[in-house]
Amino acid sequence: MFNSSFVSFTLKLLEGVLYSISLGGKCLVLCLPFSLFCAFLFKKENLVTKSFLSILDVVIALPNQLLLLSIAGVSGGSIGAILISIFITQVPGLIRHLRVYVIQAHSYEYVEAARALGASRLRLFFVHIIPRLFLPLSISALSLLKRVILSESLLMFLGLGFDPLTPSLGRLLSEGRSYLFLSPERFLLPALLLFLLLYILQSVCDRFSSLFDPKGVRYL
Amino acid sequence: MRLIRGIAYYFVSILLVFTFIRELVWKLPGSIADLISDSETNLQDLKTISNTHLGQESFFSELLNFFTFNWGTSLAYKERNLSIIWKHLHLTLYLSVLSLFLSLLLVLFMFYQDKKKMRQLANIFLSLPALVIFPLFVWVFCEFTSYCPAGSENIKMMLLLAAFAQALLVAPRFFRELEAEVDHVLRQRFVLILRAKGLSKKRILWMHVLTNVFPAFLSLSLLTWLGFISGSILVEALFDLPGVGALTLEALRGRDLPLVYSLLLLLGVFHLSSLQISYLLKRKVDV
Q1: What angle do CA B80, B85, B91 make, to 5 degrees?
Q2: Of A133, B85, B166, B212, which residue is most buried, by most CB within 10 angstroms?
Q3: A178 contact residues in B (CB cutoff 8 A)
Q4: Do B135 and A187 lie within an 8 Å CB cutoff?
């Protein structure tokens, strides 16, 4: 069982996991600061914010998977195209989500006190609001990472991804599917790794959510 | 009136967004007038033009073209595209309704089981990607047991199998969200007051709690159904079903951009109109 092809397959698997995580990291670096900045910029209720949010609403309401596959597939499937497609499909929801927390954080008394004391907008943002947003930001980042890994695997699985030599979990699953009868481990191992990766992210996300949202008494 | 206004509002917004996306990413042919005047242009010519006319017109002229009802190549070939989409749409709608029905049955089943165990099971199923479940389903039922051999004419069995696989993936999420909603209602003060008045648990649950949960249930069901339609690409590709999802994948692989654009536009408008209707229904039901 542990021959050279199996070892090379295991190495490919590890490389695939690392690749998925690194792509997720790139997307996080691209999407999270931009969403936070937009959420901070469009926190006031005025005409510009309303029009911006209505456009975001339209993108959120569009069929997500279809949009992702169409943009990535039509634009050639390069890594830039995949990043852009994930950016277009994920960022509107993220901005909407973070905007609620930014507005909430702005209404806290200590923020108002800091503003009354003459703190600048930047100081308010970096010193008072960002620390307050740590937990929702972590939850958003983890769920975004999960969605990015899934999206990338889906694109690769359907053959709409980039370079065929890229060792992605989606591509390994797609290749292993053809050998399910002869050597099931070629499909089951990437599947297990993808499942474990997503399960860990989901569990951490759930734990963070329960920390953030303590529940009251249940009456029935 | 509100419905018409809502749909019109979304329709204008969607046109704007699509123009942006088309201009930024897709780079479809700029000179739409050339295409429309030339009725003899066949699909091959169309693809050649798509590759040669990259970004020759500005964003504003594209926008103008939109509002003067020349919706680019997708509408230049609207009859062809619409007939193809219409042919495939039946199956996708049938599959999505069947999947929704099966997932509702599964959710009902989960509600009657031990909640703690079901919550753990839901957590596991939430992390199971469709990429893993669907190929395994196909392998077990179509290849390993030959219960429903691939490539056979038995499309009904394939549909049922696909619907069950989709329901199995979606039901835990549905259950989790619905359970959270029920939990949220159960923690409200009025439940305590009703209990203090001496109402039985069953009466509180069926008459008061479920009435409060119903709007959320309605919107969740509709969102799930829309999710089935938009997520039909993978399931139809793997279960070999000739629906809209398979058509999209085929169009993407064949670089048939007008068809992709038509599909996205039609499904997008369908999606948005359904959401608007669900919003209005929710307002009606939510008292």
Answers
A1: 150
A2: B166
A3: none
A4: yes
As a whole number, the mean pLDDT across chain B is 74
Backbone dihedral region of B72: left (phi > 0), alpha (psi from -120 to 50 degrees) or beta? left
State whether A219 and B192 contact (CB < 8 Å). Answer: yes
List b or e across B89-122, with b for residues whose CB sees 16 or more CB atoms inside 10 angstroms.
bebbbebbebbbebbbebbeebeeeeeeebeeeb
- Hey, what are A115's tokens? 């503003």
Q: Are B164 and B102 in contact (CB under 8 A)?
A: yes
Question: What's the token pair of residue B233?
Answer: 């690409």
| DSSP 8-state secondary structure symbol assigned to residue B144 | I
In a domain, A217, yes or no: no
Separation CA A22–CA A72 (nearest Å):
18
Cα–Cα distances in Å, from B185 out to A21, A207, B228, B246, B266? 38, 22, 28, 41, 37
Q: How far is B132 from chain A (nearest CA, A)?
A: 6
In a domain, A218, yes or no: no
Residue A62 domain-assigned (yes or no): yes
Contact A88 B17 (CB under 8 A): no
pTM of the model: 0.78
Distance CA A68, CA A89 (A): 6
The answer to whether residue B113 scores a pLDDT higher than 60 is yes
Indicate the pLDDT class of residue B70, thresholds 50, 70 and 90: very low
Instruction: Judge contact between A160 and B252, C-beta under 8 A.
Output: yes
Q: By mean pLDDT, which of B82-86, B169-173, B197-201 is the weakest?
A: B82-86
**B54 three-class SS:** strand
| B174-207 core/surface letters (b: 16 or more CB in 10 A; e: else) | bbbbbbebbeebbeeeebeebeeeeeeeeebbee
Q: How many domains does chain A have?
A: 1
Let me know: does B13 contact A55? Beta carbons within 8 Å.
Answer: yes
Asked whether residue A50 is assigned to any structural domain, the reply reads: yes
CATH number at residue A82: 1.10.3720.10
With an 8 Å Cβ cutoff, are B124 and A199 in contact?
yes
Tokens 């969607």 appear where?
B14
- For chain B, what percent of residues have pLDDT higher than 90? 5
Question: Residue length, chain A?
Answer: 220
Tracing tokens 């439940």 back to the chain, one arrives at: B191
CA–CA distances in Å: residue B70 to residues B35, B86, B261: 10, 21, 14
Distance CA B21, CA B253 (A): 19
Task: Give Rg (Cα) of chain B.
Answer: 23
Query: Residue A151's domain spans which residues?
Result: 4-212
